[in-house]
# Entry
Amino acid sequence: MSTLIRLNKFISDSGHCSRREADKLIEQRRVRINGAIPELGTKVAEGDKVTVDGNTISASASDKTDRIYIAYHKPVGVTCTTERHVKDNIIDAIGHKERIFPVGRLDKPSEGLIFLTSDGDIVNKILRAENAHDKEYVVTVNRPLTDSFIDKMSQGVPILNTVTKPCKVTMQSKMVFRIILTQGLNRQIRRMCEYLGYEVTKLKRSRIMSVRLAGLKPGQWRDLTQEEMADINNAVLGSTKTAI
# Structure
């Protein structure tokens, strides 16, 4: 590390947590630089000693050969948090030997594909809404679908003081549809369905970008392939801003 680097990026690059989580640690005064409590936005110089809760944080390998990237089929009931005191948290559910954290979220009643990694930098790049990365879901609702429902879902629905972006929605069967989103609003699909008078009874994420869930049973995980990582890195090329 030959230049100054923002503290939150230094912590996330180390594989300790995402940049957003690093900001929380700094705000909670759990971080020290050379024994002193830093502020948000503080930069780290080469030779500085950074600790979180008294544990030393090491600089990342420049070639990221020490990074973990996995695809996980999150079962219903698992919570996407790194807080180990939360029952059924995703970290304990996977039991990986390395420290990893989820890229984004899937709410507790939902299942399907989610990435986990020790590379905080790529988390921020993937989560940026401007990158418009496809996420595909298969959704079951409580009553028969109509052409009007499909059209309205596709065009955009008013939720959370905004209107969802146009998206691709196709009917799979009488009560099942497939939807491809480039947004990640809180409980977006469930809220969209609720607005149109439907209740989601099952929600599964089947794809993120070029990575598919196929082959993974609930609770199973696998390392992302070199080809998949190449596609992901190509998709986030040029993305440098902090995740929103």
